[in-house]
Amino acid sequence: MKIVVLVKQVPDTWSDRKLREDDRTVDRDAADAVFNEMDEHGVEEALKLKEAHGGEVTVLSMGPERATETIRKALAMGADAAVHVSDEALHGSCAVGTSAALAAALRTLEFDVVIVGTEASDARVGALGAMLGERLEIPALTGARSVTIEGTTARIERQVDAGFQTVEADLPVVISVIEKINEPRYPSFKGIMAAKKKPVQTLSLADLGLEPSTVGLAGATTEVVDFAPRPPKQQGEIITDDGSGGVKLAEFLATQKII
Amino acid sequence: MSEVLVLVEHADGTPKKVTFELLAAAALLGEPAAVVTGGPGSGAGLVESLTAHGAQKIYLAESPDLEDYLVAPKAEVLAGLVADKAPAAVLLAATGEGKEIAGRLAVRTGSGFLTDVVDLTADGVGTQSIFGGGITVHSRVRAGTPIFAIRPNAFAPLEQAGAGVQENVEVTLSAAAKSARVVDRQVEAKGDRPELTEAQIVVSGGRGVGSADNFSLIEALADSLDAAVGASRAATDAGWYPHQHQVGQTGVTVSPQLYVAVGISGAIQHRAGMQTSKTIVVVNKDPEAPIFELADYGVVGDLFTVVPQLTDEITKRKS
C-alpha cells in the first residue's frame, strides 16, 4: 500500500504568535516552529497502516526551508521518503492556493491513501482534506477517529454533532484524522540516525507546472485588510471562597441579568 | 439587489439557530436566499420558519443522495446555484461540515473563502479572531464569489419576515460527489441540553473535576442554567467526558453570552475556544490559574463546595 502523509510546520501555540506588519502573513520568525499536532497523529496512522498492510509511507510538506525540521521528524518516526514543496513564490498562499500546490504535488506521486490532519493549529481552516478530494476527484473521508482498510475499501468512524457515522469509500482516498485517533510514537535514536539518510525530494513551482501568479500572495483568493492585537481583557472581581462563594457567584450572575 | 445564498443547517425537521443568524448576516450583503439540502420531503417543514426569519427565496434541493454521502453533494448543489443565480456571496455555518463545504465550493467556483467569521460589513469585509483570540483580523475575498463560514452566535437572528418564494432545484450529482458513502449512523442521546456551539450559556469542566462521575456536578449546574456542557482537553483526553464536548483548539469554539469555567486552568489551548465569550466566570482552587485573567468574576475555592452551592442558589432564585 502506498501512503502519502501531509505534514505542516506551524508556529507553536504556546509561544507568542504574530502576523508580519509588512505583508500581513504569519510571522514565522516570531514563534517557535513545531510539528502540527494533528499531523503527528496522521504520521502515526500512516505508519500503522504500513505495519498492517505493507508498502511505504511518503511524507509531503509545503513550507519554507525550515520545514525540513518537521519532515526529518516524520522520517525519524518511520516514514520512508519525503517530498518538500518549497518555493519563494508560495509565501502567503491562501487555503485555495495551498490546496492547488499540494494537489499538484500529489499528482506526481503514486498513492492509495493520502492522510492529512483535520486542521492545522495556526490557520484552523479545517478544509484541506475536502479540498484535495475535490481537486483530485477522489473520496475524502474526513474527521476520522478510526481507520480500517479491507481490500480496496477504506472505512472510517467520524464524530458528528449527533453521535458517530461510519463512512466508506473505494481507494484511492484522502483521509483526515483528529488527534484522538492514536498516540504518536516518539522517534527512536536509531530512527533519528536513519532519517538523515532517507531521500527528500524538493519540488519547486516550476517542477509542479504551476504559475507563480496563481499561488502565494500574488494569487491569494483572500487578503488581510488590517489586523490588531485583541485588547487585553479587564479582569473582573476575584474573591476567595469563604463558604459563600457559590452564593456570591449567583449574585454576580443576577447583577448581569443572566439569572 | 443580488441574492446571498445561505446553506440551511437543519436537524429533526427544524433549522438550527445558526441558520437564522446566517440569514441576518446575508441581509447585510443582499437578499437572503436559503438553500435547503436534504432527503425527499425534508424542506417543507422548514419553509415557514425560514420565511419568518427573513428568507426572500428558498431553494429546495431534495434527494436521498444528499443524506447518504459526505458533504460533497451539498457543495455540488451550491456550485450549481452559484453558476445559475450569480449570488453576491455564499454563507455557511463555520462547523466542521460547513468549512469543508466552503473549501470544496471555493475550489469548484474559483473563489476565496473565509472561515470562523464573527462579523461582516456590507462591503464584504469579514472579522476573524485568530491565534487563540489574540489577534483580530479584517479580511476580504478577492476572487470569485465570496464564501463566508460564519461562527454560530456571531449574529442576532432577524425577526423580520421575507417573501419566502420557493423554488425547487433539480439534484444531479457527479460520481465523484457520491464516493464517500455513509453506511452507519450511531445517534447518541444528548438529552434536552442545547447544542454546544449554539448555546447561550456553556458550563465547562476541566482537570479539577477529577473523574467522569464528578461531571454530574457540571451537568447539574448546566441544567440549572439551561446550558450546554463543555469540557477541557484534559477532561476529554482522560475519558471523563465525550470528545464532541471539547472546547478549544482541536475541539469546538464557542462564543456564548456566559461561559462558566470550572476546574480549568486556562491554557492557551482552551482559551482559543472560549475567549470571545461575552461574560466569563471562573471557579478554580488555584489563584494562579491563567483562566482568572479572562474572568469577569472568579471564585478561588474548592469546586466541590462552590459548584453545588451555586447550583442550589440559581435554582432557588429561578423558582
Determine the N-to-C terminus distance of chain A.
Answer: 59 Å
**Chain pair with largest interface:** A-B, 85 and 94 residues
Subunit arrangement of the protein? heterodimer
Helix content of chain B: 25-40%
Order of helices and strands of chain B: EEEHEHEHHEHEEEEEEEHEHEHEEH
Determine the structural class of chain B based on helices, strands and strand pairing. alpha/beta
Based on DSSP secondary structure assignment, what is the total number of beta strands of chain B? Answer: 17
Strand content of chain A: 25-35%
Count of DSSP helices of chain B?
9
Q: What is the terminal separation of chain B in angstroms? A: 49 Å
The secondary-structure element order of chain A is EEEHEHEHEHEEEEHEHEEH
Shape of chain A: globular
Radius of gyration of chain B: 21 Å
What class, by secondary structure content of chain A?
alpha/beta
What does the main sheet of chain B amount to?
9 strands, mixed
Dominant shape of chain B: elongated
Structural description of this entry:
The complex is a heterodimer of chains A (259) and B (319). Chain A is built from seven helices and 13 strands. Chain A is of the alpha/beta class. Chain A is globular. The model of chain A has no long low-confidence stretch (mean pLDDT 96). Chain B has 319 residues and is an alpha/beta fold. Helix content of chain B is 27%, strand content 28%. Chain B has nine helices and 17 strands. In chain B, the strands form three sheets. Chain B has a nine-stranded mixed beta sheet. In chain B, strands 14-13-15-16-17 form a five-stranded parallel beta sheet. In chain B, a hairpin with a 4-residue loop joins β8 and β9. Chains A and B meet through α3, α4, β7, β8 and β9 of A and α5, β7, β8, β9 and β12 of B. β12 of chain A pairs antiparallel with β9 of chain B, so a sheet runs across the interface.
